[in-house]
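Note to self: user wants both folds in one dump. Writing first protein now.
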Amino acid sequence: MDTRFVKAAALASVSVAVLFSCASASVAAAGCSPGKTHRIAFMLKQQTAFRYLHADVPFFKKEAEAAGYTVLVQSAENDAQNQVSQAENVITQGVDAIVIQPVDFHVAAAIAAQAEKAGIPLASYDDLILGAKQAGYIGRDPKDGGAAAAKAVVAKVPKGNYVLIGGDAGQTGSTLMQQGYHTVLDPLVAKGDVKIVMDQFTPAWKTEPAQANAENALTANNNKVDAFLVSYDGMSLGVLQAIKAAGLKPGSVLVTGQDMELSAAQAIVEGRQFGSLWPAPDEMATAGAKAAIAMAQCKDIGATTSTDNGAGQIPWVKTPIYLVSQDDMADFVCKHPYWLDINEVYKNVPDKKPTCK
């Protein structure tokens, strides 16, 4: 699956510049004209999750509204067909640009095709639409995130039984993170140091099936599991519950997550969870809004690399992703006050609460 979503790392910087220039030129040649509605559609797979309410939506709106654009926020609530219907409505209403986080990267290809037919520039956000032309992609590299989490865990537990619990199999944010885990673990598996005793995806990133998988993995291996690499904090919560139900000591099994939700942050400072990947949704949203404004004005979106989605090279505005462990928590909460209330994070271990400068 690497061929669908890889950086054009082999290209020299000049070649990349030429690629982007050609991409911009092709847009102009296709008759791109600046939008006149001053509306941008920001289509999310799930607006109700903590990260969307506290980072993606407010940071995107702040940037776009400052430039004079109205943002139409749409939330599909993890229903791919609902997202298709929402896109049809948005396209009918008329917008200058669409930035979309696809519920399903294959189904959303139809949305990209509809937008192209309507002459509305569209870019994928946080998760790349596969097999369809688009103006760009804004987001982190999930594969880098998975590798970062796996490396950090391997540094603590270089040998043992590992369980991989990914998100929805229909989203590149999940499939690529799983690939990132494997890039680090597979050589250790070949050496006999690591054994992957379960490797599962989780429909709609739900807590309950993740917990059930964790329970099954623990039961099948007589509780001898050393690490759970988990792709979302909501699923990590279920894994932690399974570990507790198994009677294992908190922190004795390393567990990762993603998104730095409050429950995960609390578990990290309390020593129950090893760490959580931070996909920097604030930076991603700001970059997404800037790209949308550029698309609306027929300008370059500011891509720093490119990726192949099966329909050609797509300009990619790459944003950061990194693991936050207990060692990093104090610095993180002090630098992200809009995201987490420090008193809530440390409410069960107030003696560990840092003093922010």
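First done. Writing the second protein, which came from a different request thread.
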Amino acid sequence: MEEQQAEQLTNREEKELHRQERREQQEAIERWRKIKKALKWGIGIAVAAGAIYGVIAISGQGEAGKEPLGRSIPSQGQAHIAAGAAHQEYNSNPPTSGWHYAQPANWGVYQKELPDEQIIHNLEHGGIWISYKDVDADTLSKIEDIAKRYPNKLIVTPRTKNDSAIALVSWGRSLELGSFDEQIIIDFIKSNKNKSPEPNAQ
């Protein structure tokens, strides 16, 4: 009798042990499924984040590596001279660097010519100079409209020495236009503003 009871207990224990093993196997399988799911999500998120970062990095490199608009003019230095003092000839027309007065002009639109030597100081401070010659009233109005959008770091003046109707210059950069082109002017401003020896100066 006792042996039968002992045998039944053993059978019961074995069955319970099998049940316990099956439960543990099921739990292990369920845990592995959850881990796989989490891994898939993690990998997906990592891939997406990597792709986004790559696009941003490539875009940034494209902008950073992009050549500024306009023809590059070798620098003639930043020497200050007294107002009216003689100096060597500039290497571009209009000039983009070199000998200049100690006092820059105020930013804005002028109806009269200013000395090249004064505006060069503005270029040194990261400014853009739009000068024009023999343009009609409509073109001048459009140029002045652009100037209103960029109240700082922009000077607009007439200039009889120009070789073209419109000349865009910044420190070490020059672009001549035979006629008004709003997009090119804006691109030049964005591309070259504050690309100078003293961009933070006002």
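Dump finished. Worth passing along: The chain has two domains: 1-66, 71-192.
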